[in-house]
Structure formats: structure tokens, C-alpha cells
Write a structure and sequence with these properties.
This protein is of the alpha/beta class. It is built from 19 helices and 31 strands. It has four domains: 158 residues, no CATH class; 219 residues, 3-Layer(aba) Sandwich (Rossmann fold), CATH 3.40.50; 114 residues, Rossmann fold, CATH 3.40.50; 128 residues, Rossmann fold (3-Layer(aba) Sandwich). The strands form eight sheets. The chain has a six-stranded mixed β-sheet with strand order 10-9-11-15-16-17, with helices on both faces. A six-stranded mixed β-sheet has the order 26-28-27-29-30-31, with helices on both faces. Strands 3-2-1-4-7 form a five-stranded mixed β-sheet. Helix 7 packs parallel to helix 8 and helix 16 packs parallel to helix 19. The protein is elongated and about 90 Å long. The N and C termini lie far apart (59 Å). About 5% of the residues have low confidence.
């Protein structure tokens, strides 16, 4: 892809001003103007205001916030481009005409931070006054368009201290080697890294020219060793980033024996910069693309800037905090574009497209470009092979076996409970069907011992046989929440089996899987509420309130039943509980993951306490929660008499030691 470039050299001028020196192709001499950097524009504050608008009871209008961001974008465009704005518009119009004629081309704004041509070393002041400004929000008032939101316009940053010549493309004759690294140490805010990994896998699906590897719970040493040993071209980091004011350093959180291992930018840069095959580093972590704002700071203490200067040609990072949902969506779009052979900056532009314009997060990714181009990989050989090799359909069918649709039904129709038509016909609409009604009388188990002694072995045998068919599985559940949980608990050790759920919501079927579907912006849970009940007991009762509010009913049951509970935890979905509050499989999984991580970190010694789970949620959520639950220690589940057909309260179901 051919990019026309405008180079914007930003360096200090007199009286607190910054000089912007513009160089464009065909221009006889650079055009200069000076400006005073705005001090009232804070990208993180814009993000926090937007995130806060999702809190229950918030009166903040997201439309008003979007208009505020547009106005900031207009200001930034006017400040930065000043007297060259008209020239830029003409160039952009010319690029649009070329693209209309099917020419693959784009326009690059390169912001060069600091004066590399100066006589002395790069000074902090060269960077600090302009580095934290979210230039990616620039918006041309006349064209009513955010520059960075366009597919063919890129805004890249280059550290002025290092500007090597155009890098030589790597001829990828074998495979593009990508290492995806995740770190989720104890006590860190849980991230939905399984969903992000699933999306990256999907981005490379059916493309045989990618060697995609994953390193879970990674230490920094193991990450570097794997990068060098595997000669990887691309590093993708999933985890947490942050800034410590006490040290003035940015860091990434890795793991060391499950605990936090904070690795700072200089160490990251020195190691990654010496890995010769590494050409692209993607840090999908908060503040990984941020630069310092304090005058006495080291200008290269930011992670992305340090790694770029150390020698990695292209670095993609996040300049402020980022939500889990945006990071996941961005990753899939980024790699789907990268595999086509387009430059990395085109992949970043495509990643911005998946983020809603009402959200400020499309401007969060920043791209540090070390050389003249981000077109680092020569895919022409492999892409030509792909287009000319005929596809053998019989081999294709063998590579993608037909789905195996499984049905499980435990509900029994009675005068108090009517089955839906899809549940009645489950034995006819599925290839394999497990009837569990014999264990129940109405909605109630015939004997409490049957959960563990009869139903669970029967369920395990059914699912084991299905896994051994080596086909993608679709699971349809007309069953108790305990059955859904037990099915998920079984699949904990079968993570390589492709699996989706047929979730019935408001009478309509939806296909749910952990890595697919929209995840709402903002917090997914209300703050978890803890309440002490009995200081002599270590057991914890958890009321999961997604479809209904159940805290009071659970506490009443605990009091009347006499079970010994030390702590009571209320886990309530953000907003208010309701029948259709969970939007997708990805939403359900992320809810389950966050709850699982919190319980694992906050409910004491798992060897000496039991979790008592009272769950009011769609079976899809319950299944995903069951998949994650093996690390939670001993468990006891409960079923509720919703129809008040017997006692109108809870009764114990499955017991897991």
C-alpha cells in the first residue's frame, strides 16, 4: 500500500511554544508555524467521563460527551495544522480520487516527537509538552471527519532520537510467526484473555501461513526465551500496564509463580530490542503507549517509546486505560487485516473501525513507527499461492467436520410448569439426546443423593462420548442450572473442543460461545457486597443476581436452614437484574470470568472453606462459570422453587469436594 506522507516535526520554540515543521512531497521547503500546547485536554479524563456515564443513575449524556470530543478534535486540528490545513485538504481529496479509481493508497501523518537533528542528546522538554496530547482525535471541521477514524489515513508517532532508513521487508516464505502472551497474576483485575485469544485464533482461521502460538501465565523471562527460540515476528501481549509515580516508570505486569512481577520499560526495551526477528510488538494493556507529562521525567520511560527506540520497527500500544471489550474487538480486526499483507498502520486503522464512534476508545491505540514504512512482511509469494491453488472440497469437509448437536433435558412438564415447544422437541432436533427426567418429579430431584450418585455420572458419560467424536459441539440445555454448571465443570479439561451453546432468551434461540458477540461498555458488575454472618464459620455464600434479585431470599434461607455461613456475598449485574440482561456469549463469559477471579482472590483459603452458590442467571452464564470453577475449591450448589410448588425456597443440589 502506497502512503503519501506529511511529516510533522515537533520541537521546542521560544516562550513556551512548540514549533511544527511540515514536509510534504513536492514541497520546495518545509512550512513552519508555532503553537502553545493546550493544557486543558486530557485524554484519560475524556475516557473516565465516558466510562462513568454507564454507572446506574448517571445523568451524563454520551451524546454530549461525543460532541465535546468533536470540539476537542476541531481544536487539535486547528492547533496542529494551522496554515497548512488547506494544503492538506487538497492532498486528502487527491488521495480519495485515486482510491475511487481502485488504487490502493493512503495518507500518513507522521508526528516526529523531538528534534533528532539537534546538536545534543534528546531533551525531555522536546517530548513532554506534546506527547500526552491525544492527536489521534484531530477532526477537520470542514470535512466533519476524524482523521484517524478513516481506513486510509494513519497517524503515527516517531521518536526523534532514532530515525533509521527504511527497513528491509522480511520475505515470509514459511509462516508469519505470532506469539500471544498473557499474564493474569493474583490480585490483578481479571481480564477476559480467553476471549481475546479466541478472537485472534478466529482472525487467522483457515489461513495456513500463520504459526500462532500462545504462552499463558507468562513470566518475562519465558516470554523473551520463547520469542528468541521460536524466531517470532510478532509479539502480542494481553495483560495490565501501569505507571508508578514513586519510580517515574511505566511497567507491564507479568507473572512469577502466579504472583505479580512488575517489569519496567527499560528492561522490556533492552530485551525486545535485541531480538532480531521481532518486527511488531502489540501491547494490549493500559497506558502501554503513554509518555510522561512531568518536566523532570525521562522521555523514554514509556513502554512503547522505549521499545521503539530500542529497535523494534513497529509498536502498537494503548495511550490510556482501555476496556476489555475494546481490546478484544481491536485485536481481531487488527490481525484479520495484517494477514492480507497490508501495512501495520492499515491494520490499526481497521481496528479503530470496530469501535463505536460514540466511544472515545477508537483513539486509544497509538502506533510508533521507527522506519519509513510499516509494510514489513512480504506476503506476495504465499498470497499468490493461495489464489492459484485449487481447493479440494472433500479435504475441506474433512478439515471442518459437521457439528454434533447435543440435547440435555431435565425439566419435566407438569400442571405447575409448562415446557416450551423447543424443549419438548429436543430429542427430535438434536443428534444425541440425554433425557434426565427420570431423576425428577416435576422440577424437584427425587432424592438429594441422586445429583452426585446418579445424574452426574450419567452426564459425564454422555459428554465424554460426545468429545470422543472429534467434532465441534453445540449444546442445547432444557435443564436445571445445576446441570448447566456440571456440564461446564466437565468441559474445564476439554478446552480444545470447539463448543457453543444454544441459549434461549425471551423464547428465541441464540448461539453463544465464549469469544463471540458484543460486550457492553463500562463495568459489568455492581461492586460486590460482602456481609459477615458468623465469625465461627469460614464458608461463603454467594448470591449471583443476573436474572432476579435474590439476596434477601438467600439470607432468609440461610437463617431458617441453619447452615453455617461465615460470609455472604452479593454479586449483582451492573444496572438491575432482568431476563434479558446478558447480551451474548462473550458477555456471559466475561461476567463469569470476572466473578470467578474475584471469588478466587477474596474468599480465603480454599482448603478450609466451601463456597455455597445460589445462582439466578441464564444457563449460558452458569455453564461458563462451571468451566472456570475447578480453581474455586469445594462447592455446594442450590436450586430454587420458582413455581412455589413445594416449599418456595432453596434446596441443596450438587456437592463438589
Amino acid at each position: 500500500m502506497d502512503y503519501e506522507e506529511v511529516r510533522v516535526q515537533l520541537s521546542p520554540a521560544s516562550n513556551g511554544e512548540v514549533r511544527a515543521s511540515f514536509t510534504l512531497n513536492g514541497m520546495a521547503a518545509p512550512i513552519e508555524h508555532t503553537f502553545i500546547p493546550p493544557e486543558d485536554i486530557d485524554a484519560e479524563r475524556l475516557y473516565r467521563d465516558w466510562l462513568g456515564s454507564f454507572k446506574p443513575g448517571s445523568e451524563v449524556s454520551r451524546d454530549d460527551l461525543a460532541r465535546q470530543r468533536d470540539e476537542i478534535g476541531h481544536r487539535l486540528f486547528k492547533i496542529l495544522f494551522g496554515n497548512v490545513a488547506a494544503e492538506l485538504r487538497e492532498r486528502l481529496t487527491a488521495i480519495e480520487h485515486r482510491r475511487a479509481g481502485d488504487e490502493v493508497c493512503g495518507f500518513r501523518f507522521r508526528l516526529v516527537l523531538g528534534d533528532a537533528a539537534g546538536p545534543g542528546p534528546l531533551e525531555a522538554s522536546d517530548l513532554l509538552r506534546v506527547s500526552r496530547i491525544p492527536w489521534e482525535l484531530c477532526m477537520d471541521r470542514e470535512r466533519q471527519r476524524h482523521l484517524a477514524k478513516s481506513r486510509f489515513i494513519s497517524i503515527v508517532r516517531t521518536i526523534g532520537a532514532q530515525q533509521p532508513p527504511r527497513p528491509v521487508k522480511i520475505r515470509v516464505e514459511g509462516k508469519l510467526r505470532v506469539l500471544v502472551v498473557d499474564a493474569q497474576p493474583k490480585d490483578a483485575t481479571p481480564l477476559n484473555w480467553p476471549a481475546e485469544k479466541a478472537r485472534i485464533k478466529r482472525a487467522f482461521k483457515n489461513w495456513k501461513y500463520a504459526d500462532l502460538k500462545f504462552l499463558d501465565h507468562a513470566s518475562f523471562e519465558k516470554t523473551c526465551w520463547r520469542l528468541e527460540e521460536g524466531r517470532f515476528h510478532v509479539l502480542h501481549f494481553i495483560g495490565h500496564g501501569g505507571y508508578r509515580k514513586s519510580t517515574g516508570q511505566w511497567s507491564l505486569l507479568f507473572e512469577k509463580k502466579g504472583e505479580k512481577d512488575r517489569v519496567y520499560a527499560p528492561d522490556i526495551a533492552s530485551r525486545l530490542g535485541n531480538i532480531q526477528t521481532l518486527k511488531v510488538a502489540v501491547f494490549n494493556a493500559c497506558r502501554s503507549g503513554e509518555l510522561p507529562g512531568e518536566e523532570d521525567s525521562d522521555p523514554l520511560s514509556g513502554i512503547a517509546a522505549a521499545v521503539s527506540v530500542a529497535g523494534v520497527p513497529v509498536v502498537v500500544a494503548m495511550q490510556i486505560p482501555v476496556t476489555d471489550g475494546m481490546a478484544i474487538e481491536f485485536s481481531e480486526a487488527f490481525y484479520k487485516t495484517l494477514r492480507t499483507g497490508l501495512p501495520v498502520e492499515a491494520a490499526v486503522a481497521e481496528g479503530r473501525q470496530v469501535v463505536r464512534l460514540s466511544s472515545p476508545e477508537w483513539a486509544t491505540p497509538v502506533l510508533y513507527l521507527r522506519g519509513a514504512s510499516s509494510e514489513l512482511f512480504d506476503f506476495r509469494t504465499m498470497l499468490a499461492e493461495t489464489s492459484h491453488v485449487p481447493v479440494d472440497r472433500s479435504e475441506d469437509l474433512e478439515a471442518a467436520p459437521e457439528e454434533l448437536i447435543l440435547g440435555i433435558r431435565s425439566f419435566v412438564e407438569s400442571k405447575d410448569y409448562r415446557l416450551a415447544e423447543w424443549a419438548i422437541q429436543l430429542n427430535e432436533t438434536t443428534e444425541r439426546f440425554l433425557p434426565l427426567e427420570e431423576h425428577f418429579q416435576g422440577r424437584f430431584i427425587r432424592g438429594p443423593e441422586e445429583w452426585n450418585n446418579a445424574l452426574l455420572p450419567q452426564l459425564d458419560e454422555f459428554l465424554s462420548d460426545a468429545v470422543h467424536q472429534h467434532r465441534p459441539l453445540v449444546l442445547c440445555l432444557a435443564a436445571h442450572a445445576t446441570v448447566a454448571f456440571a456440564a461446564g465443570y466437565f468441559f474445564h479439561t476439554k478446552e480444545d473442543t470447539p463448543l457453543s451453546l444454544l441459549q434461549m432468551t425471551a423464547g428465541k434461540p441464540f448461539r453463544w460461545s465464549a469469544g463471540q458477540g458484543a460486550v457492553p461498555e463500562g463495568p459489568l458488575w455492581q461492586p460486590f457486597v460482602e456481609e459477615s454472618l458468623d465469625t465461627k464459620s469460614q464458608d461463603v455464600a454467594v448470591a449471583v443476581e443476573i436474572t432476579q434479585s435474590t439476596s434477601e431470599a438467600v439470607k432468609t434461607y440461610i437463617e431458617k436452614s441453619g447452615i453455617s455461613i461465615g460470609w455472604f456475598v452479593s454479586a449483582r449485574i451492573a444496572g438491575e437484574p432482568g431476563k434479558i440482561r446478558v447480551e451474548s456469549g462473550a458477555h456471559a463469559f466475561q461476567l463469569a470470568w470476572q466473578l470467578h477471579q474475584w471469588l478466587k482472590d477474596h474468599t480465603g483459603d480454599r482448603s478450609s472453606r466451601r463456597l455455597h452458590l445460589f445462582i439466578s442467571a441464564p444457563n449460558g452464564f452458569v455453564f461458563f462459570f462451571g468451566q472456570l470453577a475447578r480453581s474455586l475449591g469445594p462447592l455446594c450448589l442450590y436450586e430454587y422453587d420458582f413455581e412455589v410448588a413445594r416449599h418456595g425456597t432453596y434446596e441443596q443440589s450438587l456437592l463438589i469436594q
